[in-house]
Amino acid sequence: MIRLLVRDFQWIKGMNDDPGDQCAHGRVILNVNDTEFVKPEDGIWTISASALYLLRTLSENHTAENSVAESNFLFPCCGFKVWQIGNRFKVICMGCNNGIDLEIIHQEDMVTISSSVSSETVSKSEWTSAVLDFTDSVRKFYRSSLPKVAIEDEFDNQGWAAFWQEWDERYHLATALSG
C-alpha cells in the first residue's frame, strides 16, 4: 500500500496566497508498505517540482546516475528556477542543495522505491495511481489559488511554459495508459 500525499499546502511565504510565487510547497508523506520514506517533519518541499519528477518516474527509472530530477532531488527544498535547458527532459528545476532523493526502479510490472536504508516494491499500477493522485492534489491547489502574476523574464517564462506542457503531456499519457 502506498500513501503519497501533501500536507500543509503553502507558498514560499507561508499559507497566504502568493500570486508572485510560481512554486507550490508543502510537507510530504510517502509511506510504502508501512515503510516511511518521507514524513511531514522532514521539511517543506517544492511539491510542484516533485509532482513533475514523480510523473517522470512513471516511465523512467530514477537513480543517482540517471536522475529524473536533473540537478535536484526527487523532493527538493527549492525549484525556484525552471529552465528549458534539460539534457534528458524538457526542463530542469534548479534549487538549493537540500532535499530527499529516493531511487525508483521499474522491473516489468513492479516498481521498487529505495532509500539508503529501506526498499519496498509495489505494482506499477499502484505507483501510477499514487503519483496521479499526488499530482491531482498539487494541481487542485494551484487552481484554488489566485492567478499567477505574469513572468516578465522571457527565459523564465519559457521555462514555466515548458514545465506545464511537460506536466500535462506526462499526466495525460499516464491517465490514458492506466485507464
Average pLDDT figure: 94
* Structural class assignment: alpha+beta
How many domains? The number is 1
**What is the β-strand count?**
11
Q: List the secondary-structure elements in sequence, H or E.
A: EEEEHEEEEEEEHH
Largest sheet: 4 strands, antiparallel
Q: Separation of termini?
A: 20 Å
What's the alpha carbon Rg, rounded to whole Å? 15 Å
Low-confidence stretches: none
Strand residue percentage: 25-35%
Tally of alpha and pi helices: 3
Shape: globular
The helical percent reads 25-40%
Q: How would you describe this structure in keywords?
A:
179 residues, alpha+beta, 4-stranded antiparallel β-sheet, 3-stranded antiparallel β-sheet, 3 helices, 11 strands, globular
Description of the molecule:
It is built from 3 helices and 11 strands. The protein has one domain. It is α+β, with helices and mostly antiparallel strands.
Could you outline the blueprint of secondary structure elements for this entry?
Layout: E1 2-10, E2 25-32, E3 35-38, E4 45-46, H1 47-56, E5 75-76, E6 81-83, E7 92-94, E8 99-100, E9 103-107, E10 110-114, E11 119-123, H2 124-143, H3 154-178
Helix pairs in contact: 1-2, 1-3, 2-3
